[in-house]
Structure formats: C-alpha cells, structure tokens
C-alpha cells in the first residue's frame, strides 16, 4: 500500500477566501458528489482571530458556494456543510483508485491531500491527470506503507465506538473533541489511534482487493 501527500491548488475561490482573506485554518472532513456538477463538503474551520459569522456570511456570498449550513459556536471551530461547484481536481480524485484520508488548506487556494492507494502507479496516474487538466499539483511525499498486523484491542475498541457514535457518518454525529472526551484521551492521541487503525483496515481491504481474480 502507498501513502502520498499532494499539494493541489484549486481553481475555486472559496478556499482562498477562507484561508487568505480571513487567515482561518480549514480542514475538509468529508466530500461526496451531489446533484448535477456539485459537491457536498463537510468542513471544519478554525477562525483564529477573525469573526466566525463574517466567514460564514462571506461563504454564503461566494459564487462557487450554493448552500451553507453552519454551526457557529461562541468559541472554537465552525462546522459547516457546503454545496460547492464540483472542481476538476475533486472529480478526478473521486474517479481515481486513491482514498483521501485527510485534506487541509494551505493558503492561496491550496489543499494538502493525504492519500492511500493500492499501488504507486495509482498516485502517479492521478498526478498526471491533474497536470493534464492544468491544475497545479506537487507530489510532496510518497512512501510504501507496510501492514502492521491486526488491530490491537484498543484500536478495535476505539474504531468500534467511533463507528457506533457516528464519527464516520456524513455529517458526523460526534466530532473528534467530544469523542476524545468519551474515550478519555487527548485529541492528538485519539487522532493517532484512529489514523493507525484506519490504515490497518484499508491495508487489509487493499490486500483482499488485489488478490481477487481480474
């Protein structure tokens, strides 16, 4: 199994607006195709010192964003679902053999994608396709990820609890902060446990997929 990090500059301006004009930090939690040429995105926005309500209002005015549903707490991160134009980069990713495990805005309209794929050629093919589309993309890192055996009891318990409480649903029924409180660990520790567990599950899936007769 291959793990890679791509830095992609998106043509749509809503990411640039959030990160550039407001200095906010944005993470794409999940994306899925919606009706027509649109994409449903679940995002987490840390407004920093900016007014969170101004960020949401700006998104509602953006021509690339068609619908916005947001939870804006007095303090902390904004959780929002956005119906946005389906850009070429996202469409090519959805049609590739690569799995998106994390996406973080890097400023200037860029996103850093962390991907898992069954083979190196899957990553190389996606990069080539994006370049053919005229989308700026940088392969920041690529490495082989060896399977590290079965899930530990702790990883299995945490993944099971996360699944039962709706952490993997769209939209999430529980966020990382609340899940960490239930497990009794820090967000950083929980994130690492989930990442390692998900990696093992995906590795097992890919191994089974590659063993199937073609």
Features:
214 residues; alpha+beta; 2 domains; eight-stranded antiparallel sheet; 7 helices; 8 strands; 31% strand
Would you kindly provide a brief summary of this structure?
The protein is α+β, with helices and mostly antiparallel strands.
Written overview of the protein:
The protein has two domains: 2-144, no CATH class; 153-211. 39% of the residues lie in helices and 31% in strands. The chain has helices at residues 14-21, 52-61, 88-94, 120-132, 153-164, 176-183, 187-211, and strands at residues 2-9, 25-33, 38-46, 65-71, 78-85, 99-107, 110-117, 137-144. It has an eight-stranded antiparallel β-sheet.
Structural class: alpha+beta
The quaternary structure here is single chain
Strand content: 25-35%
Largest sheet: number of strands, sense, barrel closure: 8 strands, antiparallel
Number of domains: 2
Distance between the termini: 19 Å
The whole-angstrom Rg is 18 Å
Helix segment tally: 7
Strand order, sheet with most strands: 4-5-3-2-6-7-1-8
Strand elements, count: 8
Helix fraction?
25-40%
Report the mean per-residue pLDDT as an integer.
83
| Contiguous uncertain segments of 5+ residues | none
Write down the secondary-structure element order: EHEEHEEHEEHEHHH
Q: Give the overall silhouette.
A: globular
């Amino acid at each position: 199994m291959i793990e890679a990090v791509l830095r992609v500059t998106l043509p749509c301006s809503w990411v640039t607006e959030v990160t550039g004009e407001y200095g906010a930090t944005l993470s794409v939690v999940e994306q899925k195709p919606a009706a027509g040429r649109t994409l449903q995105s679940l995002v987490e926005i840390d407004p920093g010192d900016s007014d969170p309500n101004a960020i949401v209002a700006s998104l509602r005015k953006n021509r690339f964003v068609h619908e916005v549903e947001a939870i804006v707490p007095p303090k902390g991160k904004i959780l929002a679902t956005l119906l946005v134009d389906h850009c070429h980069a996202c469409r090519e990713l959805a049609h590739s053999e690569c799995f998106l495990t994390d996406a973080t805005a890097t400023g200037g309209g860029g996103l850093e994608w962390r991907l898992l794929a069954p083979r190196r050629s899957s990553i190389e093919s996606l990069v080539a396709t994006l370049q053919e589309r005229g989308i700026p993309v940088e392969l920041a890192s690529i490495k082989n990820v060896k399977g590290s055996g079965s899930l530990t009891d702790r990883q299995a318990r945490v993944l099971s609890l996360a699944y039962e409480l709706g952490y993997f649903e769209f939209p999430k029924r529980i966020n990382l902060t609340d899940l960490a409180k239930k497990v009794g660990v820090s967000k950083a520790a929980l994130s690492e446990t989930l990442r390692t567990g998900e990696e093992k599950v995906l590795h097992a899936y890919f191994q089974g997929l590659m063993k199937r007769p073609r």
